[in-house]
Amino acid sequence: MNRVRAVILRRLVGAVAVLAIVIVGGFFLLEAAPGDAVDAYVVSTGGDAGMIEELRKAWGLDRSPLARFGLYVWSLAQLDLGRSVTFSRPVLNVVLERLPNTLLLMGSATALSFSLGSLLGILAGSRPGSFRDRLLSIGSLALYAVPGFWLGLVLTVLFSVQLRWFPVSGIETIASGKQGLDRALDIGRHLVLPVASLGLIYLALYLRVMRAGMAEAWRMDFVLAARARGLPRRRIVIGHVARNALLPLVTMLGLQSAAMLGGSVVIESLFSVPGLGRLAQEAVAGRDTPLLLGIILVSAVLVVLINLAVDILYAVLDPRVGAGEAA
Amino acid sequence: MPLLPLSRRSLLSGSAALLASTALPAHLRAQETPKKGGRLIVAADSEPRNLNPAMVASNGVFFVASKVVEPLAEASFDGADGLVPRLATSWEGSDDGLSVTFRLREGVTWHDGKPFTSADVAFSALNVWKPLQNLGRVVFKDLESVDTPDEHTAVFRFSKPTPFQLIRNALPPLTSVLPKHVYEQGEIADNPANTAPIGTGPFRFAEHKPGEYYRLERNASYWDKDLPLLDEIVYRVLPDRAAAAGALEAEEIHLAAFSAVPLADLARIAEVPGLKVVSRGYEDLTYQLVVEINHRRKELADRKVRQAIAHAIDRKFVVDTIFLGYATASTGPVPLNSKTFYTDEVPLYAFDPARADALLEEAGYPRGGDGKRFSLKLLPAPYFNETRQFGDYLRQALAVVGIDAEIVNNDAAAHQKAVYTDHAFDLAVAPPVFRVDPAISTTILVQSGLPDGVPFSNQGGYRNEAIDALIAKASETIDPEARIALYREFQKLVAEDLPLINVAEWGFVSVAHESVGNIANNPRWVVSNWADTWLGA
């Protein structure tokens, strides 16, 4: 277990540095955007100069950016994410309210693209260069090239507006009073289309990584040996070729979790899923610095954790990983 | 025989229903007897941070809050002075313009059961409308005190003569009444009732699930015993416009207001059986498409150049192509549908690029070798598809007469800062709102001497003493006829000197299911209380 502990320690030290960079970068990027939260707010209300001045004071925007950054870091040091200007509520509450929806969406979409992608990858990679391989590779590439919002719109028009199989938008039926299993099924029905639009796009990546790994594995000596021993083809594909191609796929899983968060901004807006992605978009439009930083921080922690889990999994799966440092 | 489940009866009734849905015009079917009960689901494109309509008099807030918190009077197509009573039953101004007396409705209770009295009105006026409200700070600036001789009379006293006509016109949008007993403790801006409003309206605020919906419930003890008709109103948060149209077609929502369905989709949506497109119900919320001008630019400080720009714009093209007919060409700063104040006796600027060319030559800006006279920075407001599209059109229209406009695109906050605080523009496209009376939010567009940073105001550095004097005089003229005459003169001066260029004016469009009754029955229906709105089968 020493090996695993070394991996965790190394990752945690790196994570602190990542979070620090994220905070500084996020704060000053949003600061560089013209207009502040009051500008964004008065667009919808109008108001005279006195009102605008009072708002700036009330929201703490009359201080210099550096002073505000200092205050923010100070409150962060006390584990306080601050108050959202646009929601006038603590950032942590707002973010935690949306986090489960995003996790559900991301988790399901990742599961879909990972499982379906690797399955199709095995189908393609079991006979590299075959017609089936070509068809799957081109098909998945085409899906990868499709913009997420467009795929979402097409799925909505087809399955919600025309066929009425699935709801157009939302995370569950509003104010339905459903409980337990009923509610879970209801949420599931609402998630089908957003998960499909998000998951189908990333499916191609897993498929191609799997296929490439398998194509390479076919040329390995142990595969030759297995064939020489007269093992059935199916066993060679599953037990020898696919198994060895699986490791890069796990790496991919960690990398993709960040990309998935990005993709969910579009999909959450399109399907009106109240998640972190949509919240981030609202935070930028409202110039809500504390909220945006809160979202970025929570997402960064999430990505770091997922990657940590992937690393541990990797260390467990492959004895060669991390062995050098642990020795 | 049960192989064919289709009976003759079901076939007949099916075709009859088909006939009914195609043969009867929409307005006939909507006039069935109103039905009680039901949950109306409507699309909301955003969630305002504050749902207190007495503090924030804006359409986004009213859309939800006007069903909960009521004003003293509401707008009406046929009532006297365009009003019907709500919390006030009558109103009367004194001849000297120094006081207005309101008789208040009796037997009204707040949603928490406490009685509504004149003390609530006095508190709202003095502690909220005048010091805190975005529009009230202008209209009620001279309000000095509110006398409450009895529980159902409130007398507003002004330190300077204030036109009763203006107060009357301001009643629907500016006078939402808050419960004093809820707001008198602590800071008004931090009161929890700002996000869960308590009022006297036909619906009570039930819950808000952030990012998902608002839910309002029927107020069983509403002062009008027969109303409201609906049991519930649910606002579903649908930030994506395509999602709103899809949700309507899939019958997940009944109504999408404020042009949530883009104009370009309306022709297709109108063909969908069971859906209707309604453009009434926005008459008192007229948006104006305006070219804002930075008069600090030497070229634009020349009236001839501004007139040339006005001549270069084809208003008919703008109305037909950008607004797809859902707009009217403007002649000046007051829209055509303001029957009280509008006048067409103003200088008009017909589409005439040749005349524009001639004016620019006269002004001393000949075309250079590349055909260009000078370059400008053009900032279209990002708030509407139409303001952005008009920006693109204006660039092309100006190119024809030799003015090279470079478009600068910003998001809402950045546009607000660039135009109204930093003045970093030459031309901007803005959508100000005309709110029934020019003194509420229209004269501010040309008046001089305003501090930097005030949105939807003259930030172009324009100063015209004649216009300023006219605005000042109208603001203290009590006699309505004299006041109207002053504002007609104002329109003439503005159209003549062009501190800004009015291009078109529009109201929004609603798309609703045929089953929704009593839609658009007053000139600010979308932001009124929906007490008599009902849901058929």
UniProtKB/TrEMBL annotation, chain A:
Belongs to the binding-protein-dependent transport system permease family. Residues 99-314 form the ABC transmembrane type-1 domain. It is a multi-pass membrane protein. Its main location: membrane. This is ABC transporter permease. Keywords: Cell membrane, Membrane, Transmembrane, Transmembrane helix, Transport. Gene3D superfamilies: MetI-like.
TrEMBL record, chain B:
Gene3D superfamilies: Dipeptide-binding Protein, Domain 3 (3.10.105.10), Periplasmic binding protein-like II (3.40.190.10). Keywords: Signal. One of its GO terms (molecular function) is peptide transmembrane transporter activity. It holds the Pfam family SBP_bac_5. This is ABC transporter substrate-binding protein. It is found in: Periplasm. GO terms for cellular component: ATP-binding cassette (ABC) transporter complex; outer membrane-bounded periplasmic space. Belongs to the bacterial solute-binding protein 5 family. One of its GO terms (biological process) is peptide transport. Residues 83-430 form the Solute-binding protein family domain. The keyword Signal applies. The keyword Acyltransferase does not apply. Coiled coil: none annotated.
